[in-house]
Design goal:
Blueprint (H helix, E strand, L loop, with lengths): L1 E6 L2 E4 L4 E9 L5 E8 L6 E7 L5 E3 L7 E5 L4 E6 L8 E9 L14 E2 L3 E6 L1
Parallel strand pairs: 2-11
Antiparallel strand pairs: 1-3, 3-8, 4-5, 4-9, 5-6, 7-8, 9-10, 9-11
């Protein structure tokens, strides 16, 4: 019903910036949320940030708050501007979409049904 494709990963030095994109398509309504998760090698998938279609309400993980900024354009593309990147940000970043996700469930990967393939972000020191 909903399709998401992410892009924009790459290799940067610590302190640098990247901008990730998530192109969303399909039957998207005001009840949907697009979230970003990341998974470092050997680690569990971790919530990063989310945005709701209704009102563009944002929710950030403490680890990225103040450094990452999520936004959405009028073509249903979600962006994550990642500034002051650090080596601990190195991971595969995934875009995901889900519907009827209450606030306290936004960080749970299993509440998102549609997932992209992931894009690698590598931050060197």
């Amino acid at each position: 019903q909903v399709h998401v494709v992410e892009s924009g990963g790459g290799l940067v030095q610590a302190g640098g910036s990247l901008r990730l994109s998530c192109a969303a398509s399909g039957r998207i309504d005001e009840y949907y949320t697009v979230g970003w998760f990341r998974q470092a090698s050997g680690k569990e998938r971790e919530f990063v940030v989310s945005i709701r279609w209704a009102g563009d309400n944002e929710y950030y993980a403490d680890s990225v708050k103040g450094r990452f900024t999520i936004s959405r354009d009028n073509a249903n593309t979600v962006y994550v501007q990642m500034d002051n990147l650090q080596p601990e940000d190195t991971a595969v970043y995934y875009c995901a979409a889900g519907t009827w996700i209450v606030d306290h469930d936004l960080i749970l990967p299993n509440r998102y049904y549609y997932w992209g393939q992931g894009t690698q972000v590598t931050v060197s020191s």
